[in-house]
Amino acid sequence: MGAVGGVQEPGAVVRRARGRGRATASMADVARLAGVSSQTVSRVSNGYAGVNEETRQQVLAAMKELGYRPNSAARALKRGEFRTIGVITFTLSTTGNMRTLDAIATSAAAEGYAVTLLPVAVPTQDEVRGAFSRLEELAVDAVIVIMEVHLLDAATVTLPPHVQVVVVDSDAGSNYTVVDTDQWGGTRAAVQHLLDLGHLTVWHLAGPADSFAAQRRADAWRGALTNASRPVPPLVRGDWSAESGYRAGLELAAREECTAVFAANDQMALGLLRALHERGRRVPEDVSVIGFDDIPEAASFLPPLTTLHQDFAEVGRLCVQAVLRKMRRDGPQRGTTLVPTRLVLRESTAPPPGVVPGGLPPAAGSGED
User: Fold this and answer.
1) Whole-angstrom Cα distance, residue 187 to residue 245?
2) Please, is 143 exposed, middle or buried when counting C-beta atoms within 10 Å of its C-beta (0-12, 13-18, 19+)?
3) Is 314 exposed, middle or buried (0-12, 13-18, 19+ CB in 10 A)?
4) CA atoms of 224 and 207, how far apart (whole Å)
5) How many CB atoms lie within 10 A of CB 257?
6) Of 83, 146, 80, whose CA–CA distance to 113 is shortest?
């Protein structure tokens, strides 16, 4: 069986494809088994309309029986897109970056796109250029850059002009399409909450100096106190980790005048809580603490942490929507979209010692230490 008089028997190719598996099954094999044209198989493979449901199911059943998989590379070349979004990130160690990446992947999948991740160890022009070159070799349609560090305001670093790019959590400014959390608004809400409770001022446990988010939160903290004509304490810096929060917390615990602390993220707030507990400073009776991020564990801290909720899912969704609009030339190519934060009140904040709820704060001073 297989050839008669030098002519191949009509069903022979299909039977061989069934026997040897998906590697040998072709579009023509599927068409013959389904009793349709190769063009119909192509339309079903590419999700085009115009194929009635009965025929579509017939083609899909033939694909499944033969183990046929469409040639995604050939299909991408034909359609001019790979349905893949590249993501460049300079660190996977922070909660914000990991949750943003997860949200991007989820949103991309909902739009029918895959995500190719490319971590970059050192944020330099050469590394950035190399990352884009590698992503182009991996065939991506556009790129989302999670760039927490100060970089795009440096003259030595630019992103390729021919690539559709959306930047997350960056100082990219008006030169790029940016999606970011409202760092200023969230920080002002945290500081104002503590001042409204009656605290004379608010100390700040900041993130690393090279972080855009940390700098934006520190600037907003300082501005909120200045606008309220309150004294601005010396800034205490950490590195986003709970350990750095603990070390800074030992320093803050030794300052009796410190009754309220705004920590730039929840991990540092966790270390701060431990240090205050070890030094006998009760939270919130002696010191109030607010974090930033609202990580899932924040409600299980002791005490449960008042913090600013970042909507990472919305950030990821907006990033994907922005990059798809850029690919389709549908919408602005530059500008910043801010995702609001929300203050989540738990049990780590209260009026300072000697002030009853709703009471007036002590007399305010001014100036920076």
Assistant:
1) 18
2) buried
3) middle
4) 18
5) 9
6) 83
Three-state DSSP at 89 gives: strand
> Which CA distances in Å does 355 have to 53, 228, 259, 318, 320?
71, 19, 11, 43, 48
Q: How far apart are CA 119 and CA 121, in angstroms?
A: 6
15-34 confidence digits (pLDDT tens) = 444 444 445 678 888 889 99
Question: Would you tell me how many other CB atoms lie within 10 Å of the CB of residue 121?
Answer: 8
- Paired strand residues for 115: 85
Q: Which amino acid is at 115?
A: V
Which residues, 6 or more positions from 221, have their beta carbon under 8 angstroms from its beta carbon?
187, 191, 202, 204, 206, 262
Where b means 16+ CB within 10 Å and e means fewer, 353-366 reads: eebeeeeebeeeee
**102-106, 185-189, 300-304: least confident range:** 102-106
Residue type, 245: G
Indicate the helix (H) or strand (E) that contains 61.
helix 53-66
Tally: H helices and E strands in the chain: 12, 14
**Interval 333-343: pLDDT, tens:** 678 889 999 99
Q: Is residue 166 helix, strand or coil?
A: strand
Q: What is the torsional sign of CA 12, 13, 16, 17?
A: negative
CA-based nearest residue to 106, from 334, 335, 352, 315 = 315
Phi (first) and psi of residue 49, to 5 degrees: -80, 175
Query: How far apart, in Å, are the Cα atoms of 139 and each of 47, 105, 117, 142, 296?
Result: 21, 17, 12, 9, 35
Place of tokens 């564990």: 297
